[in-house]
Amino acid sequence: MDDRMMRAVLFDRYGGPEVLYVGRVPRPEPAPGEVLVRVRAFSVNGGETAARSGSLRLLTGRRFPQRAGLDFTGEVAALGAGTTDVAVGDRVWGIVGRTGFGSAAEYVTVRAERLGRVPDELDLVEAAALPVATTAITALRDKAKLRPGERLLVRGAAGGVGNAAVQLGRAYGAEVTALARAANLDFVRTLGADHAIDHRAIDHRTVSPEELGPFDVVLDTAGTDLRAFRRLLSPGGRMVTIAFDLTRLAASLGYIAASAVHGRGRVRFFSGNPKRALFDDLAREVAEGRLRPAVDTCFPLEETAAAHRALEAGGVRGKYVVRVD
Questions:
Q1: For residue 172, how many other CB atoms are within 10 A of its CB?
Q2: Domain of 155?
Q3: How far is residue 68's CA from residue 100's CA, in Å, rounded to a whole number?
Q4: Same domain, 223 and 253
Q5: Helix and strand counts by DSSP (H, E) for the chain
Q6: Sign of the alpha-carbon dihedral angle for 99, 100, 101, 106
C-alpha cells in the first residue's frame, strides 16, 4: 500500500449524511511550525454537519471534494521545521482551527500551538469527546466569569459542550439548572446538575423568570429563541451563546449585535479557537477530577455517516466519537 496516501472522510456534494464516504487522499506533510498527527479518534460536531448539509456554503464554497472532522486525538508522527515544543510520539488532542475541516482522516497537520497533551489517564478514543470542552471553559470562565454561588442555566445540557458546562459549572461552585430531553435528565443529573428540566415541557416564547430563573448566567448551545432566554437573566446577568439560528441567520446576528446596546444583559457570542494554554487548562480540569469525557457511542471510520445521522436525530448523551484505526 502506498504510504503517501491515507484514508479520509470526503463528500462530493452538499446533502444528508449519505453523501459522506471514505476515500483516499495524499497524506499531508508538516510545513514549518506544523505537526503531523496520526489521528486515533475524532468527534462529530454540529458545525461540520451544517457544513456538510450546505448551510454554510457561503463560507465553505463549491469546490469538491470537501473534508469532514474538526477535532481529534492522536500521536505526533512528524515535526515540521522549527517545531520544538512537542515530540514525536506525544499523545495529543487539538482542533484544526477556523481554516476548515479535515481531522476525519488517518493523518492531519496543524500548527503546533493548536495542540495540547492528553492526560496519561485518558484513553485516546474517549479523550476525543473533550476537545470541544474548551468552549465550555471559555464560555463560563472567561466570557461569563461565572462565580461561586451564582445560578447557571445550561441549554442543551446533554450535548458535547453542554455536558462539559454542567460539570464545570458544578466544579466552579454554581447552582446548575440543565435543560435537556426528558430521556436525558438522569444523565445530566449524574454530571452534577442540581436541577434537570425537560426542555419540551416549557414554552420558550413565554417563560418568565418567575417560572424558570432568574439566572446569573445562561449558556445557550442552540442559537434559537435568544430573546426568550435573555429574559431569564437576573440584574447583572450574563448570557453566552455558541450558535446561530441557521434558519434565520441575519436576524440572529442582528439580535446579538443589538443586545449590546438595547435592554438588559448583552448576549455574548464567540467561536471556539483554542490554543495550547487552553488545552493545558482542559488537561488540568481532567487531572483534578472536575471534568470527565462522556462518550455516547463509538463508531468506526467507515460509519462516519451513521454518526452524523445520529447527531442530527438528536438525543445525544455527550459525544459521538469515531475511531480511526
A1: 20
A2: 133-269
A3: 9
A4: yes
A5: 10, 16
A6: negative
Which domain CATH number covers 261?
3.40.50.720
Q: How far is CA 287 from CA 53, 133, 290, in A?
A: 37, 14, 8
pLDDT 10s digits, 115-168: 999 999 999 999 999 999 999 999 999 999 999 999 999 999 999 999 999 999
The CATH number of the domain where 101 resides is what?
3.90.180.10
* Chain centroid offset of residue 124 CA: 17
Do the beta carbons of residue 107 and residue 40 sit within 8 Å? no
CA pair distance 221, 258, nearest whole angstrom: 19
For residues 45 and 94, membership in a common domain is answered with yes
- 103 and 158 belong to one structural domain: no
- CB 27, CB 96: distance < 8 Å: no
Report residue 203 as a C-alpha cell.
414554552
- In this structure, the answer to whether residues 119 and 142 fall within a common structural domain is no
Query: Could you give the number of structural domains in the chain?
Result: 2
Indicate if 109 and 214 belong to the same structural domain. Answer: no
Three-state DSSP at 85 gives: coil
Task: List the chain pLDDT tens, one digit each, 325 residues.
Answer: 577 999 999 999 999 999 999 999 999 999 999 999 999 999 999 989 999 999 888 888 889 999 999 999 999 999 999 998 899 999 999 999 765 799 999 999 999 999 999 999 999 999 999 999 999 999 999 999 999 999 999 999 999 999 999 999 999 999 999 999 999 999 999 999 999 999 888 776 677 777 787 999 999 998 888 888 888 999 999 999 987 655 554 444 554 444 554 445 666 766 667 999 999 999 999 999 999 999 999 999 999 999 999 999 999 999 999 999 8
Tell me the three cell numbers of residue 34: 506544523
Pair 221, 103 in one domain? no
Sequence-distant (6+) residues with CB within 8 A of 156 are: 162, 179, 180, 220, 221, 222
Instruction: Locate the DSSP E strands across the chain.
Output: 5-11, 21-26, 34-43, 66-67, 71-79, 91-95, 107-111, 115-117, 151-155, 175-180, 195-198, 215-220, 233-241, 267-269, 295-300, 319-323
